[in-house]
Amino acid sequence: MLRIVVCVKAVMKPGAIVNVEPGMTIGGPGMTSVVNELDLFAVEEAIRLKEAAGGGEVVLLTVGTKAVEGVLRKCLAMGADRAIVLEQNDQIADPISIAGILSREIAAIAADLVLSGAQSSDIGHGSVGCAIAGFLKRPCVSFSKGIARKGDGMVEITSEIGGGKLQQVVAKLPLVVTVQTSSGPARHPNIKAVRLAKDKPVAFRPIDTPSPRGHEAIAARPSVKARQATMLEGSTNEIAKAILEIVRSRRP
Amino acid sequence: MKTMIVIEWEPGDEIPKMGALVRYAAGVEPASVALAVLSTAPDQLRKHLAVKLAAAIHEVCLPAGAYLPEARRQALIDVVSQFKPDLVLCRSDYASAAYVPAVAAALACGYANGVVGARRESDGIVCQRTVLDGKIETDIRLPKDRPAIVLIRSDDADVEISEAIPPVSSSVCDVATDQIVSVCDIPVQKDAVEISSSDILVCVGRGLGGAEKLPAFDALAAKISALVCGSRPVIDNGWLPSSRQVGQSGRRVQPKVYLAFGVSGAIQHIVGMENSGTIVAVNSDPGAPIFSVAHFGAVADMHEIAKAMTDEA
Fold this sequence. Notes:
The complex is a heterodimer of chains A (252) and B (313). With 252 residues, chain A is of the alpha/beta class. Chain A contains six helices and 15 strands. A nine-stranded mixed sheet of chain A has the order 11-10-9-12-8-1-6-7-13, sandwiched between helices. In chain A, strands 2-5 form a two-stranded antiparallel ribbon. Chain B is an alpha/beta fold and 313 residues long. Strand 14 of chain A pairs antiparallel with strand 8 of chain B, so a sheet runs across the interface.
């Protein structure tokens, strides 16, 4: 049976207005958590692989608080089978310790394939997936744009290697893949799927042993803006003319 | 304290710009700096590595053949285990992200990616990096009792070169990766347009909404002798081919004028265009981070502005 673990993260809704409170809690008015977009692609890809294999299990794994349940239910509604939350209340954003904590659970689950979004939209180290591969001593294929099943125990991955270049990698399981985008758009669950997801198991487990940290956050403050754009005001036509004037004056 | 600067290079690549890495090394610990070169032909780069600050060069010869992050992972584990640097500096880019985190995990190192500043303090090295698309700046402290690997957002600065090449040591990395069955490059589309050759770029972002909205921007680009490019979501949604992507994962461009329509300004896009001559951003969201990178901005509907510009040009 193909068992896929998808590491997901609840993040602040992109574009939200943020501020820093004393003690470094980063928050904002009406802040809502959503699934990190690239993790959503990872969930989608896992469900597609399970469907192509004609069976298997998709397990969601995250480090967080009780509050992440709502976000996980959305992924369960997409078609994941169950979720595990490794409970941690302090605001850790260190990818090495997170990867260490996740790796222990992944080893216990005995996953064939581990997927994670290539980067989170909030803290953005883009390192947890690859670090998990380091802890588990497994190969890591990074920045996947599509994963296809290639017979039993093998997958074919279209992987980005930077500079707009792509590679086709055929690899044996077990494997870690970081996901940039899924083979097709992430599905929107229908009402029935949302209802069914309410009964899917979500397990909360304490973290017994902390994992060594890669670093420790000690301060946060609003960024000093490198630049503040000169704003062009006026009607649509006036703004259009002003931009054209900028283009003309700088054209060689 | 020993610092190691990691350089990845393959024959055919440009000579790596090491300015930022050398500057960070000098700022934190200039006394003992070594360069580690990971390459299938490291000796070919040697003559370009007479970096004034560097006291030694460690060359690691990777197995020939297709690009394999697993080989680099093993090579970096080997060279760090052998020379035991306290601080390892790498470029923060796609190539590094595909193997360096695994090295930090395997060696239980301190670690940070996307670092834009570093200083040495009594209780350890403190790095700066931004989160939430650049809105918040954070200070993070690396562990003092263990080596650390830091990935630096490079600014492509050149480095001061001296006459003499520092002493060179060489090793060969043999890595058995029977789990990777085959790797082959996917050819770039034949009709690929070289966006970095254009003096004026019209960049569309997620705000485009769909491929059917593109012709309006093609029309504008034709009128002002520009090329159309896109940010990550535009390429991921298949609205433009990957050869048109600007950003960390696509092209780094430096046109005289960069017109950003409906681009929010995610950090991975910014690094691909921030050095453009004049940046003009049009976005309906007044809080979009792109406005702190652009020289000129307008809070407006991108489609209406593009149409008005096309009619007027």
